[in-house]
Amino acid sequence: MRVSLLHGLTLVGITWFVFGDNVTDETYNLRQQGDTHQISSGLMQCGEYSNEVMPNGQCRLMATLPQLEHQRCPDMFRCTDEVSYWLHENEDRKQQMQDLKETISELQEELRNHRHRIKVLELQSEERNGLNHSLEHRFHVLEQNYAEATTLLHIHGSLMYDMQTQIRNLSMVVERIRRNPGCMINIVRTSPLLSAKDTLHPEVQHIRNCPVDCASLYYNGVYKSGVFTIVPSLGTMPIEVYCDMDTEGGGWTMFQRRQDGKVNFNRKWKEYREGFGDLRGEFWLGNDNIHDVSSQGDYSLRIDLEDWNGKHKHALYDSFRIENEDNRYRLHVSGFSGTVEDSFSWYHDKQSFSTADTGNICAEISHGGWWYHQCFFANLNGVYYKGGRYSAKSKNLLGPDGIVWYTWKDSDYYSLKKVSMMIRPRTFRPRLSP
């Protein structure tokens, strides 16, 4: 404890001031002008003091007292009531300061806790903001989905309405067909007589009446040659045929054609029964199909012939049909006319069809199926010889086996370049040209 004495004795806090020109005491030795002395009383050490002269001539005395409990101060520093009051107040202030420090420490701790809580709240707020943003985004997506679902619902309703309309229309069509049967046919359909290229793009066409032949297709407005589907009245299944809509007014159902030798006609009974080849090239329509078409009315037959010099002729027969398989597809042909001499009807009429595997010697010699009669005057299903003429001696043949029409060259050893056989109703009349 440090005490300052200036011209008297006054206690402020823990400092004493003494004012006067001289301060003396018989128990103390004082030195002026800055001297320092030990203050003692008996055996008790009280501390140090110092003095100095102030500019105004007064003497200033300062003393440092020890911080010891249960020790008496010298008499000159004996505490008065005022000093005791201030000492007590000083202790209270010290206690208050300590309490204040503790309070401040607690407030600081609480402040830290509040800051931590604020940080947590800020993080929670950010999470809520993010969640709100996510919810807003999801709500926006749900709104879009709802709009799309509404649109799809409207489209679905429209489709349902259209479907109901189509069902009503279809019901009307079915009822109309029931009262007046028509036919939905394929212009081109899968068939063993069609090439793979021809079956790639089938075309469906509705006509008023099911076509029984190419003539009925012609009457339904089909005027272009090509492959079409017909439903013979005596048959159980539709068949594909090649229709010639150009020759002599059209309406012809072709059942045989030779033109380049790409198809082998040396076939067995079953193959001639079902048909073989390519409808757009060389083919045989099949004896069953020929029977079904030719037996459903009165049909005429036209045979077109062409040699290797480009000369073309034809034979026309007013009546043509063949019987069923049980009767071995017996031929009925008559009423010849045309630009070539007849080598077919007068000699082959009423003959049964034969192939090599049926045991017919003529079929074995001629290497093809035909209505043979000792063996033939005409055989349009023989071997295709390019150039026309061929020799029995040079090929060790048992007999002529080419595409023969005897009266063309008056020879069995001349093979024609192109031949075709086709039928149409005898009563057919082509449309008038515009």
From TrEMBL:
InterPro entries: FIB_ANG-like, Fibrinogen-like_C, Fibrinogen_a/b/g_C_1, Fibrinogen_a/b/g_C_dom, Fibrinogen_CS. GO terms for cellular component: fibrinogen complex. It is found in: Secreted. It comes from the Eukaryota. One of its GO terms (biological process) is blood coagulation, common pathway. PROSITE patterns: FIBRINOGEN_C_1, FIBRINOGEN_C_2. Gene3D superfamilies: 1.20.5.170, Gamma Fibrinogen, chain A, domain 1 (3.90.215.10). CDD domains: bZIP, FReD. Residues 205-427 form the Fibrinogen C-terminal domain. PANTHER family: FIBRINOGEN ALPHA CHAIN (PTHR47221), FIBRINOGEN C-TERMINAL DOMAIN-CONTAINING PROTEIN (PTHR47221:SF5). NCBIfam families: GGGWT_bact. This is Fibrinogen C-terminal domain-containing protein. It comes from Denticeps clupeoides (denticle herring). The gene is LOC114788317.
